[in-house]
Amino acid sequence: MKKRDDLTKDAPELPESGQSRRRFMGAAALAGVAGATGLGAAVMSREAFAAAAEDARNNWVVHPGELDEYYGFWSGGHSGEVRVLGVPSMRELMRIPVFNVDSATGWGITNESKQVLGDSSRFSNGDAHHPHISMTDGRYDGRYLFINDKANTRVARIRLDIMKCDKITTIPNVQAIHGLRLQKVPKTKYVFCNAEYVIPHPNDGSDTSLENSFTMFNAVDAETMEVAFQVIVDGNLDNTDADYTGKYACSTCYNSEKALDLAGTMRNDRDWAVVFNIERIEQAVKNGDFKTLGDSKVPVLDGRAGSELTRYIPVPKNPHGLNTSPDGKYFIANGKLSPTCTVIAIDKLDDLFAGKLKDERDVVVAEPELGLGPLHTTYDGRGNAYTTLFIDSQVCKWNIADAIKHYNGEKVDYIRQKLDVHYQPGHNHASLTESRDADGKWLVVLSKFSKDRFLPVGPLHPENDQLIDISGEEMKLVHDGPTFAEPHDCILVRRDQIKTQKIYTRDDPFFASAREQAKKDGIVLEADNKVIRDGNKVRVYMTSVAPMYGTTEFKVKQGDEVTVFITNLDTIEDVTHGFCMVNHGVSMEISPQQTSSVTFVADQPGVHWYYCNWFCHALHMEMRGRMLVEKA
Ligand code: CUK
Ligand code: CUA
Ligand code: CA
């Protein structure tokens, strides 16, 4: 945090342009106070000036009532959710349940969420790593956020206008979706995602040997969320990224050895960065040049060694992160077991695929040595890269152009700074770094261990997401942010790039099926409070206006399958109601103008209270009703 030696600097630093004018005024005022007290003027004013300078640098402070400049979307790791933070304050704004069950919103409980979860609603766990925002022409367009689930091999899409998940797709024929990035140009047509583990095909127990095992690179159509194609690869796949021409995607492979044991995965000095030629893959799909596997109809193409669809670039060693520079020039693979990063020139890939290069390594233009355990790299848009060093517990800032010069034999130092972080960083992410707009203001480093940085909370520790100011020459650590299991990655987007709705529109597709059912039942959701019986299925339609449900009592028979539809007629921003049926495992959110529904079996005779569990009104406690269940 604040370094003591900053306070001993002779002259105060003036705030840079763009920093808060008010903070600068604060600095001047502070200096004035020091002078007025007349206490040891020279020393005091120097200290006061230094403190003021420190204060001026604290442009990460967001005061009460002020808003952040960036949205940050954090993966929730094995909590299975996505979190929304304000940056630079690092205040948590919202949680978006995705692969988990959430009792506040009813995710995994309501019919609307179960419909999104589909068959996978039988799982209540997930392992989300890589949140990425849809793009148009290489810029965040704020429409969707996509995220992987390694635990149950899924990809989810979140609508950013309402910040709810609206589609989840289970990827067939593979296990464990890990690396995920989006096509940037001309727009996000595909969500590229890597399946990590090799499995036999068919995987029906008839053959568990490695000979018939492989894994695949997958592309999901961003609009339909159907799998567009799968490409069989050699080895395995870890992380991925796409370029700024729309032609290429590139993935790391740490297990070129195809080993089952740990020692085996480290046998080769180089594994691969695998480049996928998207144009050729699309053409092959068009030509019908594919097969299918099992019951799935997804086109499966063979991209193993010798294929025209892929190229395998040898890179050291068990590489992990793969990051495209925002100028569109380079894929950078992070060496993990090698102290190096490998810089691949994207403009040489056409020649590589055309067979004009002697060696795959001819596309490598630099391989800077950075420190121990490089995992991920991010960019400031000014030609510098920032690489996390897991083993060294540092972030290394280095200059790409100078690294290339050094690779060509010039005597230049490409390392700009190494900054200690706390501790063992995985991903790092600079503001807008995955887009053409990379602005080099903030860097978030997601440290895996927090050790002594926070009050102890038992054997399980929070992680530590650290905020670093990278707007100047020097990186400055400004904030420690404890987070719960386990944000692998995050993405920072300018606040004007996200447009949210304040209340729902009545025709929102999120509850289209409730509208359809109401129509079939002759119900006007916005007006009616009625109970419809359909055999042993009972549909209870009710409205809500703070602090009242439209129905405060309804009768069903023991064993009935009851569906409660609630339409919140409130139109005032922030007046969300809830519905909780006591002792029935039923709980949900109904935000202004939203319709939510939940289905349960009324298996216990007697009186059962339901109540509003979102504080909505002074008489919120009084917002309640009774379900009367007649004994069968
Ligand atoms: S991975 Cu976790 S630190 Cu899943 Cu992107 Cu690298
Ligand atoms: Cu409605 Cu509380
Ligand atoms: Ca390896």
Write a structural description.
A hairpin with a 4-residue loop joins strand 36 and strand 37. Helix 1 packs antiparallel against helix 2. With 632 residues, the protein is mostly beta strands. Strands 8, 9, 10, 11, 12 and 16 form a six-stranded mixed β-sheet that branches. The protein has eight helices and 40 strands. The radius of gyration is 28 Å and the shape is globular. The protein has a domain at 509-630: Immunoglobulin-like. The structure holds [4Cu:2S] cluster (CUK), dinuclear copper ion and calcium ion. The site of calcium ion has 9 residues, from loops. The site of dinuclear copper ion has 9 residues, from loops.
What is the fold's blueprint, element by element?
Elements: H1 21-37, H2 41-57, E1 70-75, E2 81-87, E3 91-97, H3 111-117, E4 132-136, E5 139-149, E6 154-159, E7 164-170, E8 175-182, E9 190-197, E10 199-200, E11 213-221, E12 227-233, E13 240-242, E14 248-253, H4 262-265, E15 270-277, H5 278-286, E16 300-302, E17 310-316, E18 322-324, E19 330-334, E20 341-345, H6 349-353, E21 364-366, E22 374-379, E23 384-389, E24 394-399, H7 400-407, E25 415-420, E26 425-430, E27 442-447, E28 463-469, E29 476-483, E30 490-494, H8 512-520, E31 530-534, E32 537-545, E33 548-549, E34 553-557, E35 561-568, E36 577-581, E37 586-590, E38 595-601, E39 606-611, E40 624-630
Parallel strand pairs: 12-16, 32-35, 34-40
Antiparallel strand pairs: 1-2, 1-30, 2-3, 4-5, 5-6, 6-7, 8-9, 9-11, 10-11, 11-12, 13-14, 14-15, 15-17, 18-19, 19-20, 20-21, 22-23, 23-24, 24-25, 26-27, 27-28, 28-29, 31-32, 32-33, 35-38, 36-37, 36-39, 39-40
Helix pairs in contact: 1-2
The structure holds [4Cu:2S] cluster, dinuclear copper ion and calcium ion (CA).
